[in-house]
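Morning run. Coffee first, then this:
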Amino acid sequence: MTKKGAVHSVPADLRRALVSAKAARSAWEDITPLARNEWICWVTSAKKPETRNRRIERTRAELTEGKRRPCCWAGCIHRQK
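And here it is:
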């Protein structure tokens, strides 16, 4: 249902959030694999469960609002240059 990122697989908790919001899921399917990878890495790089949960909710909300990449983040450390 939700496509993979360029490097990362979509974690189950993020997948549930995307599947539960049609607009977010639609936006997810519309962004590039690299952009999906950025969202996944941003979510999974959280050190605390509370932070991860906030990032998942923010991902869902921001995708629904039309944002295509996480804001104010240096980017995925796995991104090839």
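Helices lie at 12-19, 22-30, 33-44, 49-64. Good start to the day.
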